[in-house]
Design goal:
6 helices, alpha/beta, Rossmann fold
Length: 136
């Protein structure tokens, strides 16, 4: 049986992931899923490690005030992905969370294939994201 870990970091990513996964579930019944997702993935019967509200922080101040909580969730997510041993880590949007998790997973287990859906915008002051995406 194949395994896919779905990694979202906000409700819009959860919605996008659910559209892809619902189509995949229609054509394949031999895949086991686990996620960091929200209500859309849950409606497909996919378990989430925790509620998205625990990792979704908007605005610089909010992120700064919760940086240790966010880091703890990144580390916990990496541990759970490694325990689950997926064939594919399917990350969706929310690059500040998903790409950090994907990078750490790749260091620990380079055999896990990574697919990032909806590439993050590369703003003028964030050109380094192109290199990050190439290395994941």
């Amino acid at each position: 049986m194949k395994k896919i870990f779905i990694l979202t970091g906000e409700p819009s990513g959860d919605k996008l992931a659910s559209k892809v996964i619902s189509k995949l579930k229609e054509s394949r019944s031999d895949i086991e899923f686990l996620s960091v997702g929200g209500t859309y993935l849950k409606s497909l019967g996919i378990k989430s490690l925790y509620d998205l509200k625990e990792i979704t922080y908007l605005g610089f101040t909010s992120v700064l005030l919760n940086i240790f909580k966010i880091k703890k969730k990144i580390n916990a997510t990496v541990e759970e992905v490694i325990k689950f041993k997926p064939d594919i880590l399917f990350s969706v949007d929310s690059p500040d969370f998903t790409l950090r998790v994907a990078k750490a997973v790749k260091i620990i287990d380079p055999t896990i294939k990574t697919i990032h859906f909806v590439a993050p915008q590369v703003w003028v002051w964030r050109k380094h994201r192109v290199k990050k995406l190439k290395n994941i």
